[in-house]
Design a protein that fits this description.
- Two copies of one chain form a homodimer.
- Chain A has about 150 residues and is of the alpha+beta class.
- Chain A is built from four helices and five strands.
- In chain A, β3 and β4 form a beta hairpin.
- The model of chain A has no long low-confidence stretch (mean pLDDT about 95).
- At the A-B interface, α1, α4 and β2 of A face α1, α4 and β2 of B.
Chain lengths: ~150, ~150
């Protein structure tokens, strides 16, 4: 069931959503990285085991893509498209491995109406991706363009 | 043929590499977005044609993943792993559509030896992704951990 559409005016700083869990799967990690980031640490379990991480780790871009999928699936914004303008301060802070169980917190950190186009604005959320041991694997700021209520972009 | 490995000390501010071309393909755009960013603007040509972009556009994360693949394939750093620590100032500035031909410029903008661990440091590159019409589709800063010559991380 589609949730009610959210508009920029519906959002307040400090509001949070929880996402996940994302369970990491070795076959999917290798499949993604074979296509988009084919380095031994991401696609070759034997070479990865001998390397500095002692085993296969996910491409950081794969983790980012899975976090996006979770965001879409959550459907918290209803029919309002999630139109990314910008990402800032994206850090891959801890390796992600097969079997990891990632949870996500999305927190509104800024809500800003456009000065030049008063029908829209920018929502900034901090995304924090944490593994089953409480270690932050990845975090970033996600700036999304959103319409104000009564408008459509 | 693998190019010689590069180390942090080999790199200088202003050094550039060109990458691409990446030719965008509608089937691949839909396949990526179906798995990682299943919004109508990315997976449904008919809905996308009626929306604000007047046609299907690539998921921004897909473009980022393709730029990573191009970076790995270019092999400019030889066997030195491309270990992303951080991305900053990532902007999706122009929609990317099927048939677009993207070229990439990677420019060294900072080279910094770690104060606490003198065997390594951080390379910062500005990645600029331009389409066939000279429009910048995407740009970001990519911070990569690299060893100094004679070391291995």
């Amino acid at each position: 069931m589609v949730k009610p559409s959210l508009f920029l005016d519906d959002l307040t700083i400090g509001q949070t959503w929880e996402g996940g869990p994302i369970i990491m799967n070795e076959a999917d990690m290798i499949r993604f990285a074979t296509e988009y980031d084919p380095q031994p640490m991401h696609i070759d379990p034997k070479a990865a085991a001998e390397g500095r991480f002692g085993g296969l780790i996910a491409s950081g871009w794969h983790v980012a893509a899975l976090v996006m999928r979770d965001f879409v699936d959550a459907g918290a914004f209803g029919d309002t498209p999630l139109l990314g303008l910008k990402v800032d301060d994206l850090e891959w802070r801890h390796p992600v491995r097969a079997g990891d169980r990632l949870s996500i917190v999305r927190e509104v950190v800024d809500v800003r109406v456009s000065r030049s186009k008063p029908d829209r604005g920018v929502l900034t959320m901090r995304m924090t991706v944490t593994n089953q041991d409480g270690e932050v694997a990845m975090s970033f700021l996600n700036l999304i363009q959103m319409p104000l209520r009564g408008h459509q972009l």
